[in-house]
Please model this.
Amino acid sequence: MRLVSANFLALLFMCAIGSVFYVWSALESRLERHKRGFTIPGGALPADLSSKTFRALLAVPVAPQKAHLGGRNVTDHTLGSGHYHMNGYNKRRSARKGGPVKLGGSPLEDGIFWSERLEELLPVGFTEDEAREWREKAREYRVVKLETGCGRISNQLATFEDGSKACVRYGINADQVQGETLTYYLASLLGITNLPPLVLSQLSSDSEQWQAVRTRMEGLQWSERAVVSLTQWVSNLTGVVTPAPLRQENSGLHPSLKQLWNQSAAELLELMQWSDLIILDYLTANFDRLVSNLFSLQWDSRIMERDTNNLLRTPRGDLVFIDNEAGLVHGYRVLDMWEKYHKTVLSSVCVFRRRTAQRVAELHRRRDARTRLMELYRDSEPLSFHLGFLSDEHAALLQDRIDTLHRHILHCKAKYSQL
Model:
């Protein structure tokens, strides 16, 4: 009888935890929609829900560690496309002019890879040259204004002296800034260009960069010498709904899907970017995007019909992967809670960009993901030593996930190579 009672109490406890998670997830979703300018039926939001996010709820304190080595972008529909175009986004090649256009021919090659024709049509999100130019500017320009507009109140929308903007991430803990930063450089290793350029900065009210906003920093209770991340701010973005093949009621994104042959070129180009997104989120164990939606299906059967967390679209159709703070460090710490959902999402995809798959294969073959990520991070970021790098345990976990992903790609190739 005692055993039955104990089991019953344990079940009640798990249900309570799940309910709390769901409530806070919904609150955060409403907050972010409010920040982006979406209308939510049912009344106004509280002024600040920043402390009531499920990321804060899951931010389990960790014991201080010796440092190893080494924002939220928002939609502003009132500003038009000034900031969007000023960084050269409109200069890139794009297949998205006019109305829907059929691709013509097969969208796939060699069974599981998006066709070379589609690769040629897909614009580069943020090019290396543009990212480098922006990072150099962001390290030198003075910040003249800080205001809300990048999610939780601890993050701020910064205006530089030339009028351009960046999201400043001041993390609840160092995990978040580190996860955001290392995810950006891992994406660079993989050739995924959908993440806005990012730099680190060390706060100092006496420095030339931060002196003009000293009073605002004091009001925010930002700590002197704290390391924050700045990400390029892009305006005129809209939400993105999970495409039908990736919803749980469907069979997934695979080569035998007849729907692929009926898609427009723009729809296929978006699916290409989703395949990269799922690869990146699996490697980094980022639960704060499609995985959190999958988790919430047990309470909300229509969640896949609403906008996906931390994913936005430019007017030309490029996807922008924002707020990657849950990746790598924090995502690895809570992996046991989320791994079955990560595996489910990964198994739903068997179509890949050839270049991404080749880079995964190379990292698998050379088994040097830790070294290459560290070198890129150190060479690109002067403050890498201050922020730190992955622990040995987490670096090994990254390599293990690369190996698992490579095996999954080989499995898909063996299964669909005859198509």
Q: What stands out?
A: The beta strands are 108-109, 113-114, 143-147, 156-160, 165-169, 198-202, 227-232, 238-241, 307-313, 319-321. The chain is about 45% helix and 10% strand. The two ends are 58 Å apart (CA to CA). The first strand starts at residue 108 and ends at 109.
